[in-house]
User: Fold this.
Amino acid sequence: MVNGALAVFAGVLGSLLTLLVTSNLQVPVVIEDFAKPVEVPDDDQIALAQRQVLFDEKQTDTHSADDEFIHEELKAATEERSQLAQALAQLTAQIESLESDFINSRAMEALEDTESEQSQESDLSEIEDNDNFGPSQSGQDRIDTLVAAGIAVESAQALQAQQDQFQLARLELFDQAEREGWIDSEQFSDRLDQLNEQRPDLRNELGDEAYDRYLFEAGRSNRVVVGSIIPGSAAELAGLEPGDMVISYADQRVFSTGDLQSATREGVRGESVPMNLERQGQPLFVEIPRGPMGVTLVQEQQNPS
Assistant:
């Protein structure tokens, strides 16, 4: 009987345990099913979401700042380009003005050259005027001056005609070279040298005495005087003094500083050549080596008669 009671009790207890275990296994399932729709994120997820929002906002602000910076840089570059364009326009205008002034200046120089009747070059006090008719006189005045110097009328007219032809040819050469753009070229220099070889040499045509009278009648200088002397120079060693009038050098009459300086450059440098001077109205003869004399020269006018 006891054994039967124990068996009944064990069966009931087993049924209760089975029911209890089954109930415990089903509770989490029920709770899980109800929790799914209302799942709440943890703190890490919330913080991560907040950081993402802040990052997105910062990126948006950064892009906006970059766009504004680029816009300002483009605006500044545009203004700078405008300023450079204005400066370039001003420089271009200045260059055009300078070019115009240069062209006008060259034209005036060429005009003065063509109107001048002699080519003047300055070397200390050198004036190359020993073979021209004088720039200050008209054609008829020159003829009258030649006649006053003792030249026959017909000869004076012929000499003036030669000078007029030379001047016209010179004018044509300057005009052609300026128009065609080769006035600064070697071609122009060669053409001018060839033309100057054909220049009427009034001194050779008249002779020294008549030429001396012509210079005086024309109101031009016909004497060269020593102005000053460099210590230790050839002139000082030869005994020249300031105020000495040079009559001839190496047996060539001297009427201008150009005459004297040309003569010193001829012949053999250092060779002894004679000089005829006039000191205080008295003739003086010296020997001097050919070459630079070491003096300054002035020109004067003196009546040759």
Notes: Residues 19-38, 110-131 have pLDDT under 50 and may be disordered. The chain has four domains: 2-38, 43-109, 139-216, 223-300.
